[in-house]
Amino acid sequence: MNKDLDIFSRLSDFDNVLVVDDKGMIIFHDMADLNVLKELGIRPEEFMGKNVTSFYKNITNENSTLMNVLKTGKPLCNIKQEMITKTGEVIETINSTYPIAENDKIIGAVEFSKRYFSKDAIQYLDKYSSHKIFRKNNTVYTVDDIITVNHKMESIKDKLRRIALTNSNVLIVGETGTGKELIAQAIHNLSDRFGKPFISLNCSAVPASLWESTLFGTNKGSFTGSEDMPGLFEQAEGGTLFLDEINSLDINLQVKLLKAIEEKTIRRLGGKKNIRLDIRVISATNEVPDILLAEKRLRVDLFYRIGVVQIDLPNLMERKEDIEVLVDHYLNFYNNTMNIYIDRVQREVLECFKRYPWPGNIRELKNAVETAYNHVSSNQITLDDIPSRIKDYVEAPMTELKKMDVDSLKDAVQEFEKEIIVHQLTKTNGKIAESARQLGISKQLLKYKMEKHKLR
């Protein structure tokens, strides 16, 4: 009896159940995630009544665990099986398969399976972000999801591995779409805190009136209708709290945040006792800290506290060599998440991608590839499939720069930068937002440079 209970306790670790008759035809299935059927290109009702070997390129009567159990009548436990779908995706599972007998005759078989992912296949996990088995700590990304051949980005990946060993607060600086949350999740999953929660908050999305209750929580009776509710600081206990767009936080609230981060102690609204915390705080901003400090939109003391370690992410224009590898990565991703299979991208499209300034950075590139999947009419992406703003972009020729009378390389670079900004503003009739987009920088950074060069 105890042996039977042990078997069933181990079977409870599996996600999927499949039952076939004596011919290997499917008569029952129960799957934890129906995305598996999507990858096979079929609907749930189409799965029934089909031979278990008919959905994969490499599964035959000889190597199928189910067909082997039907043939031998002997169970196979904890067997690794690698299956290749019709679209070429590799699915790896661990199976335990048992015969079903009646009057000493094998009349079918039942298989319990659990899908698992190797590091090489981790990019496919975006599809499973809502599944608690795959997302126990609220993250989607690891350091392996930083796709790059750029020297600076490779150095950042190495830096993340060192940073993860400490508990120091981190500030990630990068334009919109450069992957700041990916970096934050990578640090969390490289650290000893990976088994604890990763809690993320976009500071710009929380009204000032709700900010304290959101971060610090509430006690019942602290205001009308309030209940005992832990805030995000408490929810991140033992793990990481990621504060994105911290530059949008009201200056008066920054004082309260500083105290919580500095003392690692919070008190709920209406509470009477302090709560000690063991968390790591990672913050991010899409503006240059020097600008925020100069404009007094970020407190100096808070900056020093959150930016013990600072990571400056390059924009996509600074890592153009990554465009092609990122496009290949997104082809692989969308081939496995859409009902369309693309073999390649025309060389003209890649050249167009390399000319375009990408104001939305990597996020915009990913969206451009997804747009192409919705327009494509063959097995390759052409210029007709990508967004018109990218296809029609023309890099305006620079006017001849005036002769620069300077004494040093630094002065020459500054003068050259000033000429570029003047040229761009002239071309857009002084439109700062459009000029920033064309230059591939944020509007705030352009304003900062205009003030530096006395152009405002």
Written overview of the protein:
The strands form five sheets. The protein has a five-stranded antiparallel β-sheet with strand order 2-1-5-4-3. A hairpin with an 8-residue loop joins strand 11 and strand 12. The chain is globular. Helix 16 packs across helix 17 and helix 17 crosses helix 18. It has 456 residues and is an alpha/beta fold. The chain contains 18 helices and 16 strands.
Question: Unreliable stretches, pLDDT < 50, 5 or more residues?
Answer: 1-9, 127-134
The assembly state of the depicted protein chains is single chain
Q: What form results from the Cα inertia axes?
A: globular
| Integer-rounded radius of gyration | 28 Å
Sheet/helix structural class: alpha/beta
Give the biggest beta sheet. 5 strands, antiparallel
Give the percentage of residues in beta strands: 15-25%
Instruction: Tell me the strand order in the biggest sheet.
Output: 2-1-5-4-3
Distance between the termini: 83 Å
Q: Tally the helices.
A: 18
Mean pLDDT: 84
What fraction, in percent, of the residue positions are helical?
25-40%
Tell me how many strands there are.
16
Short description:
This protein is α/β, with parallel strands linked by helices and 456 residues long.
Question: What key attributes describe this structure?
Answer:
456 residues; alpha/beta; 5-stranded parallel beta sheet; 18 helices; disordered N terminus
